[in-house]
C-alpha cells in the first residue's frame, strides 16, 4: 500500500468531519469540545517526500507572548509553532513519507492536536487575566 493510500484510509476512518481535498491532501476538523473550545482544522499534505500537518491555533492578541510560542519549540517533538507576521499562531509538523505508517500518522496528528490545545489554553488564560477582563 502506498503512503497516500495509507493516509487516505487512516483519515477516512477517523470520527468527525474528514475530507480528501486533492490527490495527496486531506482536511480533518476536530470537534470544539476536544480542541479547547473551537474547531481545530488540520490540513495534511504529501509533497516533496514529506507528510506535513498544520493547523491554525489562535489569532494574534496583544497579551500573547509570541516568543513564548517559539520558545516552546525547544520542548516539542515532531511539531513546532509558527507565528505569522500579524501575530497569528500556527502549529505544524512533518515526517518523511518513507516513515509513514498508521502509528506515525497517529503520532503526528496527536502531537499537532495536543500542542494546539495547550497553546489555546495559554491564550485563553492570558486573555482572562487581562485587567479589562476582571
Describe what this molecule looks like in 3D.
The chain is built from three helices and six strands. The protein has 134 residues and is an alpha+beta fold. It has one domain (3-133): Yope Regulator, Chain: A (2-Layer Sandwich). Strands 1-2-3-4-6-5 form a six-stranded antiparallel sheet. It starts with a helix and ends in a 6-residue tail after the last helix.
Percent range for β-strand residues: 25-35%
CATH C-level label: Alpha Beta
Q: What is the chain-wise order of helices and strands?
A: HEEEEHEEH
State the major sheet: 6 strands, antiparallel
Number of strands: 6
CATH topology call: Yope Regulator, Chain: A
User: Major sheet: order of its strands?
Assistant: 1-2-3-4-6-5
Indicate the structural class: alpha+beta
Overall geometry:
elongated
How many H/I helical runs?
3
CATH architecture, by name, is: 2-Layer Sandwich
Percent helix range: 25-40%
Domain module count: 1
Q: Roughly how many Å is the radius of gyration? A: 16 Å
Uncertain runs: none
Distance between the termini: 56 Å
> What is the average of the pLDDT values?
89
Per-chain topology:
Elements: H1 3-13, E1 17-22, E2 25-30, E3 40-47, E4 50-58, H2 66-72, E5 79-83, E6 89-96, H3 102-128
Antiparallel strand pairs: 1-2, 2-3, 3-4, 4-6, 5-6
Short description:
With 134 residues, the chain is of the alpha+beta class. The protein has helices at 3-13, 66-72, 102-128; strands spanning 17-22, 25-30, 40-47, 50-58, 79-83, 89-96. The chain is elongated and about 55 Å long.
Amino acid at each position: 500500500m502506498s503512503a497516500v493510500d495509507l493516509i487516505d484510509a487512516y483519515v477516512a476512518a477517523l470520527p468527525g468531519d474528514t475530507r480528501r481535498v486533492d490527490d495527496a491532501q486531506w482536511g480533518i476538523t476536530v470537534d470544539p469540545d476536544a480542541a479547547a473550545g473551537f474547531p481545530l482544522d488540520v490540513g495534511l499534505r504529501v509533497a516533496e517526500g514529506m507528510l506535513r500537518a498544520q493547523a491554525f491555533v489562535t489569532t494574534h492578541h496583544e497579551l500573547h507572548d509570541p516568543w513564548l510560542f517559539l520558545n516552546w519549540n525547544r520542548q516539542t517533538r515532531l511539531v513546532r509553532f509558527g507565528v505569522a507576521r500579524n501575530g497569528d499562531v500556527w502549529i505544524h509538523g512533518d515526517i518523511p513519507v518513507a516513515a509513514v505508517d498508521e502509528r506515525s500518522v497517529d503520532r503526528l496528528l496527536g502531537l499537532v492536536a495536543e500542542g494546539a490545545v495547550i497553546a489555546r489554553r495559554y491564550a485563553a488564560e492570558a486573555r482572562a487575566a487581562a485587567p479589562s477582563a476582571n
